[in-house]
Amino acid sequence: MEATLTQEQKEIIQRTIEAQEKRARTPWNVHPKQQAVREEVRAFATEHFHHQSEYWDRLEGERKFPYDLYRLMGREGFIAYAMPPEWGGLGKSHLEYITLTEELCYHDAAFGLLCNVGELAITPVLKFGSEELKAKYLPQTVKGDKVIAFCLTEPDAGSDAANQGTTAVEDPATGDYLITGEKIFIMHGDVAEIGVVFCKIEGKPKVSAFVVETNQEGWKARTLGHKMGMRAATTGAVSMTNVRVPKENLIGEYGRGFRYALSTLDSARVGVAAQGIGVAQRALDEAIAFAKRRRTFGQPIAKFQAIQWKIADMSTRVEAARCLTYKAAQMQDEPGVVYSLEAAQAKLYSTETANFCVNEAMQIHGGYGYIGEFSPIEKLYRDQRVLEIYEGTSEIQRLVIAGHVIGR
Ligand SMILES: Cc1cc2nc3c(=O)[nH]c(=O)nc-3n(C[C@H](O)[C@H](O)[C@H](O)COP(=O)(O)OP(=O)(O)OC[C@H]3O[C@@H](n4cnc5c(N)ncnc54)[C@H](O)[C@@H]3O)c2cc1C
Fold it and tell me: Which of 114, 213, 238, 297 has a CA 20 to 30 Å removed from the CA of 198?
């Protein structure tokens, strides 16, 4: 990517690096391993992110997928950070993985999301697939060589995802399944070479999941346009007509697909919580730096109590979101521990914190926040909005939390 940075962009990058260095010196409750991840990502992002962010964000009209960046991050191990080394992962803890996500999203949330989408779609195969399925599909996907998508949502099955209309019909001649149906809002669904597709087998009431190769006539996909934020990571709609899949490509057991989806979403929700922390911390750092240099009525606006209170609230919420998210990730690292409640609490709180912090950061920046050429706040505002929608809306997180704490 050609680096043509304006003076303003150079200043933004410089401020980002300074804020990161300051945080690196702050002795808060971070495990030394997490600190190592932060430093690794900072070096990576400084080299590979900053000069590409604006290009991929503004590319409306000729939207395309950032294959080079996706593969670069895949080879770096960012997609499979917490996956076992025998399948090409780095074998890190989930705590380290969510720290990775947090830091990637601090620099560019859409680039962090690219890695998270790969991880989301690979997880059902890794956790529930047969050894044959893993051997066939994991080597192609964990390093980013092939793009994989998690295809659950349908035009009439979003929050109510168990209400799948996509059906698989057995072909008696071959024993294969022929899948027909529509999927929408699928991250990387427009370019995916492999899809993890949830559907109902004809005549059976429960959801199953298959690994589908998309280079077939019946698979049609398009990129959804006019997306508000997270633009580097594309989102697609998929239409399937008799897409052939061998029965060996069933993930796990028949009729257990929805359980696999929910289990995958528990893990992914901790990741989305980490995306929220990255965005919220960035908004906080930008707001503090701006408040110190912007002067009105003869003094920096940071001297006004109205501004100080906003920053105090932002920083408190960011730390609270970290506590919830790190707790959920640590539970995830304990074999056999159920962490659905904690994942939902972390996702709900962190994503609402991102929304709160970016909104306050924009208020603190005034006009310089609303106009994208002056600060990253306008992009942060657009990027964060989807965090409260995908992988279960805030309303659905509240339902999950209430179900756990009140009982059903
Ligand atoms: C950018 C983007 C990327 C996405 N990526 C993927 C992906 O990779 N794979 C995938 O499968 N899906 C993906 N999704 C889909 C996403 O998970 C759904 O959009 C989300 O679950 C909500 O579903 P819906 O949009 O159909 O809204 P609906 O389910 O129609 O909900 C509409 C509103 O009603 C509320 N609501 C619904 N039911 C209840 C209830 N019982 N109680 C209270 N309120 C309720 C919702 O919270 C929401 O506010 C993505 C979505 C977006 C926008």
Answer: 114
